[in-house]
Amino acid sequence: MRTAARFLFALLLAPAVWGQTVAINGTLGDKALLIVDGGFPKSVALGATHMGVKVVSMQGDTVVVEVAGKKMSLRVGDAPANVGTGAGQPASGNRVVLAAGPGGHFMSDGQINGRIVRFMVDTGATAVSISAAEADRIGLKYQNGDRVQMNTANGVVPGWRMTLNNVRLGDVSVSGVDAVITPASMPYVLLGNSFLGRFQMNRTNDQMILDRRF
Predict the structure, then answer these.
(1) Which domain of life is it from (predicted)?
(2) Domain boundary at 51, 82, 113, which?
(3) Are 59 and 104 part of one and the same domain?
């Protein structure tokens, strides 16, 4: 039991293989408000470092950051960018360990067709659910998909069904994942059973472990 507990603890502490995500929430004088790995905004002064991300320069709403010797230019309000040294590495894992966040929800940064998104696990959703605004941002051609009618709290609304080439969570990548795109605004991409169904799910208190089925 102790060995298993230590193994799970190590998984939780292990950095994501595909790198950190960084977004700029705003600027104030010589400080930038950094959001690293989906956390709370942190005010970081010019030349200072937060969670391995250094603020190199600032001009208007553009901030240059440096991670592991690599520089990247980010703009206020842009989607989170993948800046870690592992960015672009192939996903080869078979297990994802998630920790519950505020409200008991399981959330994590991930990728759809190589573009970074923020997921929230939703075991009640049949498919991965994406707002039209988010689908536009990551370049999905959902208008070419099948038109569907979706039941919402505000009645029946039109939507689209399509198949995503690739969905990645941590070091696990899944191909051919069904998704629905809705005109309704959503703060997250709902990670539904078209993805979760590929895994054996086990939840213990505030941890969810996804083991890939074979």
Answers:
(1) Bacteria
(2) 82
(3) no
Specify whether 57 is located in the same domain as 153.
no
> Whose CA is closest to 212, among 101, 69, 91?
91
Regarding whether 114 and 62 lie in a shared domain, the answer is no
Q: Provide the whole-model pTM.
A: 0.60
pLDDT per position as a tens digit, 132-186: 999 999 899 999 999 998 876 677 888 999 999 999 988 788 999 999 999 888 9
**Tokens representing residue 123 in the block:** 């075991």
Edge-first strand order for the sheet with 81-82 is 42-45, 31-36, 21-28, 81-82
Q: Is residue 4 part of a domain?
A: no
Choose among 136, 141, 103, 143: nearest CA to 122: 103
Three-state DSSP class for 33? strand
User: Taking Cα atoms as reference points, which of 201, 168, 111 lies closest to residue 211?
Assistant: 201
Amino acid in position 60: G
The residue with greater pLDDT, 19 or 73, is 73
The total number of structural domains in the chain stands at 2
C-alpha pair distances (Å), 122 with each of 24, 127, 175, 195: 27, 9, 19, 10
Q: Which DSSP letter does residue 100 get?
A: B
- Which CATH number fits the domain that encloses residue 183? 2.40.70.10
Q: Each residue of 44-95: pLDDT tens digit?
A: 999 999 888 899 999 888 888 888 777 788 888 776 776 654 444 555 678 8
Sign of the alpha-carbon dihedral angle for 117, 120, 125, 131: negative
